[in-house]
Amino acid sequence: MTWMHRVRRRALWIVVGVGVTALGVIAMSTIPVWPVLGVAVATLAIALGSITRSVSPNTCLGCGHNLAGTPAGEHGRICPTCGSLNERLVGDLTAESDRA
């Protein structure tokens, strides 16, 4: 299982957990629905933001290694740790064309 799969799985379980918790609070209490949903959405925004902070164009999608110093070829960057090929993102292409 790659690093990106683990990040996606963690995000999925956070969404499921917060959703089930919100439904449980709504069903078991007399608290109105809108404040509970507001807190659930805010919790999701903070939690998913902290998870995806580590994902950048210089991160290997296979193992999470920093690829900032590795050269980018025609098809992407090869991770020196796990050997996976990381495709170049559109943001990488526009950033490199601005530098040239």
Description:
This protein is mainly α. The protein is built from three helices and two strands; from the N terminus they run ααββα. The protein has a two-stranded antiparallel sheet. The protein is elongated and about 60 Å long.
Shape: elongated
Radius of gyration: 19 Å
Q: Care to count the β-strands?
A: 2
Low-confidence stretches: none
Strand content is under 5%
**Strands in their spatial order, largest beta sheet:** 1-2
Taken in chain order, the helices and strands follow as HHEEH
Output the structural class. mainly alpha
- Determine the mean pLDDT: 85
Largest sheet: 2 strands, antiparallel
Percentage of residues assigned to helices: 55-70%
How many DSSP H or I helices?
3
Distance between the termini: 37 Å
Name some characteristics of this structure.
elongated; mainly alpha; single chain; 4% strand; 100 residues; 3 helices; two-stranded antiparallel ribbon
Give the SSE layout:
Elements: H1 3-28, H2 33-52, E1 77-78, E2 85-86, H3 90-99
Antiparallel strand pairs: 1-2
Helix pairs in contact: 1-2
Describe what is shown at a glance.
This protein has 100 residues and is mostly helical. It has helices at residues 3-28, 33-52, 90-99, and strands at 77-78, 85-86.
